[in-house]
Amino acid sequence: MDRRQFVQSAAATAVTAAMPSWQAGAAPLKTKKMIGIQVGAVSFVDEGVEKVLDEFEDQASVNTLFIATFTYGRGIAGRQVPGQPLPDHGKQAYDTDTFYGGSYTKVDPKYFSNTPFKSFRAPDFGDYDVLEAVLPSARKRGLKTICWFEDVFRNDRPNIQELQEKELSGKNASTLCFNNPGYRNWLLGMVENWSRSYDVDGIMWGSERQGAFSNMLGASHGGAAGDRVTCFCGFCVAKAKGRGINPERARQGFLELNKFVQAGQRKERPVDGYYVTLWRIMLRYPELLAWEMLWTDSLRETYAAIYQKVKEIKPSLQVGWHIWHNNSFNPIYRAEQDLAVLAPYSDFLKIVIYNNCGGERMARYVENLSQSIYGDLAGQESLEFHYRVLNYQERSLAEIPFTGLSADYVYRETKRARDGLNGAKTLLWPGIDIDIPTAENSSKCTPEGVREAVLAAFRGGCDGVLLSRKYSEMKLANLRSVGPAVKQLDLG
Ligand SMILES: [Zn+2]
Questions:
Q1: Is the peptide bond before 236 cis (omega within 30 degrees of 0)?
Q2: What pLDDT, in 10s, does the model give residues 157-179?
Q3: What CA–CA distance (Å, rounded) separates 274 from 261?
Q4: Which of 95, 206, 247, 430 could link 79 by a cystine bridge, Cβ 3.0 to 4.6 Å?
């Protein structure tokens, strides 16, 4: 930092310190770094496009909108999750009866002729098309717009069953199979629809799922062990055979693994302990890991196919991926997120680095694993093992649900991702936690905490930040701490 920068920075800090954060952020600041925010249609409908965009630009220095254009999930669309306190803006009521999900933009059937899944227009706001509603004003203001959609579906849509994964038992899962041409074609149709029909700047897609091995172990902060063990559909079986994997051996291996997991849930410790016994099963059935990697490679191929499709249509569109928070907890999942491999088909990566809810999620992950692979370790020991192998320095298991993870976690994860990209031109945009719901007594975001997370991400070498998960759950004071942080950084 030279003297001029120092004086500017010191002046900015002094101003920030002297004024309330909402005043300090009062003038829009255009930075070349990406300052993005995830926002669903409901916020524009409830609060009005101009008011929402004023708030984003004036208070949070936002220059890029990540509009939830398709999802059946509440994580990125709809108002506040029922049961959580409503934020201090938007309609002061839950949308329990009106939220349904689907595409919040018009659907052109010509892009969906080669998939059985054709009926997915969100009914929430009638004919409302969120891109038509927002793009003219966003353009006028010089804001970029990214279509943001995720791999979350409903069971009750016509023909969706034809695209669903098959669980180990043979019954349909609620998730869709990347190797099913009907789903692959739907994904490509969706991105073609947006790329050709709207003047947008890019597309981001996210899939918060993992393969059968990790799912069987319950190795995530979400569902329980034995949940969602997929996929054993005809397309996956054929693909496995093509890779020299014996599907019958894989099935047997997963049945053995299931016995191990079931015994753990009954707290019946295997004679040789959890860790050794798991290795015994893995050595007997290497197909377990082969099946896990089959799933992961299929996800990567899906990324590559979406990337290629969009680039064929409009090379200037930026295409990238939301990388699930499990990347911060499960070392197996982290091993699968090989950033150097993803880089050639990723213009950007949103690596989820949500620090406040991260404490509660890390604790839940440790708990989930306490009856399988790490069943021989006490919870605190398991946590310390994970801190060591993931390279974190955070608080104890008893504390983290109530403190969250620190800004140092944001710094370390950003720096690791930067280093993992190994000089690739892929832009790194960490996802920053602003009021992602936590349990009633767990830690909550604060303006200072958000500010520190943003500063830590830039200190770690990011190219921008993505304020997450959705505006409709963010408190204004927390969002408004971003503007002063961006000013303080003097990003140019
Ligand atoms: Zn399948």
A1: no
A2: 999 999 999 999 999 999 999 99
A3: 9
A4: 95
In one-letter notation, the amino acid at residue 65 is L
- β-strands 64-71, 102-103 pairing: antiparallel
Asked whether 413 and 460 are in contact (CB, 8 A), the reply is: yes
Instruction: Give the whole-angstrom CA distance, residue 194 versus residue 105.
Output: 8
Phi/psi for 137 (5° steps) reads -70, -40
Helix (H) / strand (E) element for 323: namely strand 318-323
* Interval between CA 205 and ligand 1 midpoint (Å): 19
On the question of pLDDT at 20 being above 60, the answer is no
- Ion ligand 1: residues, CB < 5 A: 177, 179, 231, 233, 235-236
DSSP-derived 3-state class of residue 146? strand
Q: Please name the residue that has the structure tokens 């059946």.
A: 72
Q: What are phi and psi of 95, to 5 degrees?
A: -105, 35
Taking the C-alpha atoms of residue 319 and residue 315, their distance in angstroms, rounded to an integer, is 10
What b/e sequence results for 38-57 when a residue is b if at least 16 CB atoms lie within 10 Å of its CB, and e otherwise?
Answer: bbbbbbbbbbebeebbebbb
The model's pTM is 0.93
